[in-house]
Amino acid sequence: MAKASKYTSKTPDENGVIHWSEAENKIWSELVARQLKCITGTACNEYMEGLEKINLPHDRIPQLSELNEVLLATTGWQVTPVPALIDFDEFFRLLANKQFPVATFIRSREEFDYLQEPDIFHEIFGHCAMLTNPDFAEFTHKYGQLGYAAQKKDRVYLARMYWFTVEFGLMQTDEGLRIYGGGILSSPGETQYVYSGTPEINPMNVLDVLRTPYRIDIMQPLYYTINSIHDLFDISQLDIMALVEQAKELGLHDPKFPPKEKLAS
């Protein structure tokens, strides 16, 4: 990724321990308390079950070894400390090896409400609970394998699939619309926005997803829903690269958002 981060990830010591300050642990504690209120009745059951399994501390940032013990026992995954930003090659390589990258920094107090790049709160609170689910874990693993083998021009299409599932995925359940995407689950604003009646919410169609542009710095104008978490496993068994070729031939859908750069008149 070309742009630099203003954050610096913390390096674990010789025992694999990351030393967090009291102020950093306090930010974690406040973020967790706030988001737990937001996701009550909105997060999918699989996420809530996973949250129980990983048993996150509320008063401090967890050590990665604590998470790894649970993830290894449930789905064979691990979390791995990475710099604030990594390139696509490294991202896909890690996922292909069942290692979920976690940037080991936490947002500043000034960016408490919104942070464009993923910090340790987003990665752990947003994603790790779902990685205890076998269907979700297999989808993410297969995605990493595909991405690592793919050419650069095809990775852009695969990125859209990740965006509309792992990051911003929704599920239609008997209890109503539920969230499984970590980008929503770690954001109070996006959690509330999903239920506001503003965004368009469509059933999952992989070819459509591959053709749907997105922006990372706005509330999403469009989300896609699956009917159960097992749908992700079924998607992982498709010939996704053949669908990428179809998407390239058909071209992208018109974006549902304004262009990013607007020059002042």
TrEMBL record:
<feature type="binding site">
    <location>
        <position position="122"/>
    </location>
    <ligand>
        <name>Fe cation</name>
    </ligand>
</feature>
<dbReference type="InterPro" id="IPR001273">
    <property type="entry name" value="ArAA_hydroxylase"/>
</dbReference>
<feature type="binding site">
    <location>
        <position position="127"/>
    </location>
    <ligand>
        <name>Fe cation</name>
    </ligand>
</feature>
<dbReference type="Pfam" id="PF00351">
    <property type="entry name" value="Biopterin_H"/>
</dbReference>
<comment type="pathway">
    <text>Amino-acid degradation; L-phenylalanine degradation; acetoacetate and fumarate from L-phenylalanine: step 1/6.</text>
</comment>
<dbReference type="InterPro" id="IPR018301">
    <property type="entry name" value="ArAA_hydroxylase_Fe/CU_BS"/>
</dbReference>
<dbReference type="InterPro" id="IPR036951">
    <property type="entry name" value="ArAA_hydroxylase_sf"/>
</dbReference>
<dbReference type="InterPro" id="IPR005960">
    <property type="entry name" value="Phe-4-hydroxylase_mono"/>
</dbReference>
<keyword id="KW-0585">Phenylalanine catabolism</keyword>
<dbReference type="GO" id="GO:0005506">
    <property type="term" value="F:iron ion binding"/>
</dbReference>
<comment type="similarity">
    <text>Belongs to the biopterin-dependent aromatic amino acid hydroxylase family.</text>
</comment>
<keyword id="KW-0560">Oxidoreductase</keyword>
<feature type="binding site">
    <location>
        <position position="167"/>
    </location>
    <ligand>
        <name>Fe cation</name>
    </ligand>
</feature>
<keyword id="KW-0503">Monooxygenase</keyword>
<dbReference type="InterPro" id="IPR036329">
    <property type="entry name" value="Aro-AA_hydroxylase_C_sf"/>
</dbReference>
<dbReference type="GO" id="GO:0006559">
    <property type="term" value="P:L-phenylalanine catabolic process"/>
</dbReference>
<dbReference type="InterPro" id="IPR019774">
    <property type="entry name" value="Aromatic-AA_hydroxylase_C"/>
</dbReference>
<keyword id="KW-0479">Metal-binding</keyword>
<protein>
    <recommendedName>
        <fullName>Phenylalanine-4-hydroxylase</fullName>
        <ecNumber>1.14.16.1</ecNumber>
    </recommendedName>
</protein>
<dbReference type="GO" id="GO:0004505">
    <property type="term" value="F:phenylalanine 4-monooxygenase activity"/>
</dbReference>
<keyword id="KW-0408">Iron</keyword>
<feature type="domain" description="Biopterin-dependent aromatic amino acid hydroxylase family profile">
    <location>
        <begin position="1"/>
        <end position="265"/>
    </location>
</feature>
